[in-house]
Write a structure and sequence with these properties.
The chain is mainly α. The chain has 3 helices and no strands. The longest helix is centred in the first third of the chain and has 37 residues. The mean pLDDT is 95.
Length: 103
């Protein structure tokens, strides 16, 4: 926050976007856990009902896709709220962090 010199408005936007994304992801992960559990149960049956398994796996993959979409949307919104200077500073900070990790 300080290193990027975020304005009050940017900080408020950041908080709002993060809260919304976290709430959505929490709900989606809850659903994903349930649907994954259902898929595991289907896969444990003998014989496996392929149609049921495929339908259930579609549900699981759709939820995974929704979670990824929320993450990407958040990334875009956060980047769009930053100025070009702030984006450059963020890149610099990331580069320094990678160099530290490599040591």
């Amino acid at each position: 926050r300080n290193k990027l010199n975020l304005s009050e408005q940017q900080q408020d936007m950041l908080k709002t976007e993060l809260k919304n994304a976290q709430a959505t992801i929490f709900d989606l992960k809850w659903q994903l856990n349930e649907e994954s559990k259902n898929l595991r149960e289907i896969l444990q049956a003998t014989p496996i009902d392929e149609d049921q398994m495929l339908a259930q796996s579609d549900k699981v993959m759709q939820l995974e896709q929704k979670i990824k979409r929320v993450h990407l949307t958040l990334l875009a919104r956060l980047k769009n709220m930053l100025s070009e200077q702030q984006i450059q500073r963020l890149r610099e900070l990331r580069r320094k962090a990678r160099v530290k990790q490599a040591r």
